[in-house]
From TrEMBL:
Purpose: Transfers an acetyl group from acetyl-CoA to L-homoserine, forming acetyl-L-homoserine.
Residues holding substrate: R207, D331
Name of the protein in question: Homoserine O-acetyltransferase
Signal peptide stretch: none
Catalytic reaction equation(s): L-homoserine + acetyl-CoA = O-acetyl-L-homoserine + CoA
Keywords, alphabetical: Acyltransferase, Amino-acid biosynthesis, Cytoplasm, Methionine biosynthesis, Transferase
Organism: Arachidicoccus ginsenosidivorans
Catalytic-site annotation from UniProt: S141, D301, H330
All copies of domain AB hydrolase-1, residue ranges: 46-335
One MF term in the entry's GO annotations: homoserine O-acetyltransferase activity
Domain of life where this protein originates: Bacteria
Subunit structure: Homodimer.
HAMAP family in the cross-refs: MetX_acyltransf (MF_00296)
Amino acid sequence: MEQTLQVDQLIYQHSQPITLESGVVLPSFHLQYTTYGKLNENKDNVVWVFHALTASSEAADWWPGLVGEGKIFDPENHFIICVNMPGSHYGSTCPLDTNPDKGEPYYHDFPLFTLRDMVQTYQELRAHLGIDKIWLGIGGSMGGMQLLEWAIMEPERFENIIPIGTNAKHSPWGIALNASQRMAIESDCSWKTKSHEAGHNGMKVARSIALLSYRDYTAYNKTQQGFSPDTIDKNVDEQIYRAETYQRYQGEKLARRFNAFSYYALSRSMDSHDVGRNRGSVEQALSLVQAKTLIIGIFTDILFPPDEQLFLAKHIRDAEVHIINSMYGHDGFLLEFEAIDKLITRFLTPKF
């Protein structure tokens, strides 16, 4: 009989106060998380996956090439956990939750969760689950930022870490891109209203801006040439380029599943990323990592260029680094399953 692998979607309710880096004290918080497989008797089969900006805790959905039955992270062998980051739209504490001080949703008043604050909440969940050691932590982009923070905050916690397409401190370039996206949301005339739909159209534009940093010139040239099929036979003034329809489609697609308050808040969280804050320097902070480390970058990534991964490898003791080829730019961390799988397999294979 075929075995059905265990998948659980759960909510962790933390009823004690938590103090954020900003000094704001929240009376409680909650985290939505998904687990695949079972924790073994020795509790040494934990794979903690960290998701990126607008993803959810359902890692097998957005990373199907790496997480799932028969994949390198297989629920048959591993206890895989992915937590929806605070501020996100998918079940954890977020701007649409009720502000206990006002009895209405936080909306614009949602406090800043730095990456370090996020890790603080994960530490509480880890303790609640009775997990002492995490065999492997992995995450790309903003997920990699969270992973690095945790590996520095608690160096003894991880046996192996694999940050992909990420950095030690968010760059002025990345912050400028995020600021431009927030400006797009702010320009939406509905943004100042207290409504779940506020800033919705502005977020569509923000997503369009973001996409330009997720891919690059070559990728658009290969995939978005010419006109939208339904306008090819129209007059020249009625034709619409595929590149334009693609941008509009991606904005609409996000708007169907996300809200502008979470998008705005998470972009600010990403901007706060700096492992060197109050630790002397970025270099000193990275030197604290004890886990065996594989760093993966992408040659065509213009948002987190390879120099940032090479910097990580230089300052994390004995780190291994590989830069892969991909036509997909930053999005390669979500799409280049075969190349990433091979690197992870080699990294985890015992060397005699």
